[in-house]
Amino acid sequence: MILVTGGAGYIGSHACVALLSAGEDVVVFDNFSNSSPKALDRVQAICGKPLAVVEGDVRDQAALEKALSEHGCTAVMHFAGLKSVQDSVAEPLEYYDQNVIGSHRLLRAMRATGVRKIVFSSSATVYGTPQFLPYTEQHPLKAVNPYGRTKLVIEEMLRDQHVSDPSWGIAILRYFNPVGAHESGLIGEDPKGVPNNLVPFVAQVAIGRRDRLNIWGNDYNTPDGTGVRDYIHVMDLADGHVSALKLLDTPQCFAVNLGTGAGSSVLDVIRAFEAASGRPIPYDIKPRRPGDIDAYYAATDYATRLLGWKAVRSLETMCADHWRWQSSNPNGYA
Ligand code: NAD
Ligand code: UFG
Q1: Taking the domains of the chain in order of start, what are their residue ranges?
Q2: Per-block average pLDDT, block size 10, for the chain (334 residues)?
Q3: Which burial class, exposed, middle or buried, applies to 155 when counting CB atoms under 10 A from its CB (0-12, 13-18, 19+)?
């Protein structure tokens, strides 16, 4: 039985599909602060298999211990937390509380119940300003905003825990830019309020919920001047988690990139989404967004070697699947 914190969220719900499809049993632990229980009904519909749900906060160690022991959990996938760079600058204490304290309580609950395998959602943001590209796992770590620093602190806490007790199995997964949705169109990303990220915003323009996209700068040092990122299909990402979990049968601690290795510009994404949706995406060029980097993408060799995993879905598939979810659920889970 795998305890999935934040399992009702965007990436967590897709990971639940991957886990159930791989034959694992799942208990989701989520406070639904940024998700809907409907996502979990849909996960069960996709897989034709039930999962257990516990409503709770990851900062509640007693509730975690109860869930871990009552469900006989052998491992944890830890997605729960806050993820907006912008909000983390405005509300750093909230980010340290939910992300760092939440992870700390989770590790204590795991230790108390003898569960010693954890897959953690980290982020490429821990690398900070690129000193070289692609980012390899050896790139210096220097987060440049509070959100990134919470991820870095949690990574360090996990590494320290492994040094103190090498019987733990710890997988730190550094995600690049997850987009897309399960191919069924039943689950997908459902941001609250105005989307901050590119693809959800583009999808809402395509469906008519927003008029135009703002492109934050076209004077970057990139082939077409717009920002370049390594977009990865959320189901490829989810499959990467299952591969990482399998390795933890042998105690070890590793940090690995989950990306495709390919960079796409904002204009590449717009063109791919227009083709997938058959809808125009009108846009305006605006000044750069503070804190944005020209370009970054993942080195993928280590993931291939270590996990025997590789992202296989193209940008076209990411956009087609994202559009299927958006067009069949124009208002998300609402
Ligand atoms: P999400 O907001 O969709 O999912 C997070 C889930 O955790 C939600 O279901 C939310 O209700 C739950 N949650 C939040 N705080 C909680 C708490 N205190 N207790 C219990 N549950 C709580 O986000 P996501 O995009 O699925 O991201 C999942 C993880 O991946 C996060 O840790 C995020 O930082 C990390 N990550 C995301 C991205 C991305 O671009 N989406 C990139 C890198 C890393
Ligand atoms: N962009 C626009 N207009 C928008 C939104 C984004 O032009 O409305 C551009 C950005 O300037 C950037 C690119 O699209 O060049 C991607 O931006 P996103 O906001 O989608 O993604 P980021 O790379 O900025 O950040 C994301 C997550 C972070 C995470 C990081 C690395 O938001 O939490 O990926 O994984 F840390």
Answers
A1: 2-180+231-259+297-308
A2: 98 98 98 98 98 98 98 98 94 98 98 98 96 98 95 98 98 98 98 94 97 98 98 98 98 98 98 98 96 95 98 98 97 93
A3: buried
CATH fold, domain 2-180+231-259+297-308, is Rossmann fold (3.40.50)
Closest ligand, as measured to the CA of 270: 2
Q: Is 175 a catalytic residue?
A: no
Determine if ligand 1 sits within 6 Å of the CB of residue 188: no
HEC string of 92-130? HHHHHHHHHHHHHHHHHHHHHHCCCEEEEEEEHHHHCCC
Is the C-beta atom of 150 inside 6 A of ligand 1? Answer: no
Catalytic residue among 127, 147, 231, 297, which? 147
Residue of 3, 4, 11 best suited for mutating to test ligand 1, as the one with most atoms within 8 Å of CB: 11
